[in-house]
Amino acid sequence: MKLFYSILFALIFTATAGFAQTNPKPNISGVILDEAQKPADYVTVVLFKAADSSVVKTAFTDPSGTFNFNVREKGSYYYKASSMGYQTLKSKTIVLTADNQKADFGTARLIANTQNLKEVNIAVTKPLIERKMDKIVMNVSNSAIMTGSTALEVLQKAPGVTVDQNDKISMMGKQGVLIQLDGKQTYMSSADVANLLRNMQSSEIESIELITNPSSKYDASGNSGIINIKTKKNKNGGTNGSLSGTAGYGKNFRGNAGLNLNHRTQKLNLFGNYNYGRNERDNLIAIDRISNGTPDTYFMQVGNSHRKQQNNNFKAGIDYFIDKKNTIGVLVNGYFNHGNETNANNTLIGPSFNQVDSSLITNSLQTNKYNNVSYNLNYKSILDTAGSEISADVDYSKYKGNDGSDYENDYRFQNGDRIRPIRYTRNNTPSIIDIKAFKIDYNVSLNKTVKLEAGVKSSWVKTDNDLQAEEFVNNAWQNDVKRSNQFIYDENVNAAYTNINKQFKNTSVQIGLRVEQTNSKGNLITKNNVVERNYWDFFPTFFVQQTLSKNNQLGFSYSRRIDRPSYDALNPFIYYLDEFTYSKGNPFLNPQYTHNFELSYTLLQKYMLSIGYSRVNDVIAEVILPDAANQSLYQTNANIATNISYNANLNVPVQITKWWQTNNNLNVFHLKFEAPDLAGRALNTGKTSFQFKSQQTFTIMDGFTAEINGSYESPLDYGTLSLKARYYVDAGLSKSLLNKKASLKLALSDVFNISENNLSSAYPGLTYTVHQKNETRIGRISFTYRFGKNEIKPARRRSTGTEAEQGRMKN
Question: Which one of 33, 219, 352, 580 is at 20 to 30 Å from 280 when CA atoms are compared?
Answer without folding.
Answer: 580
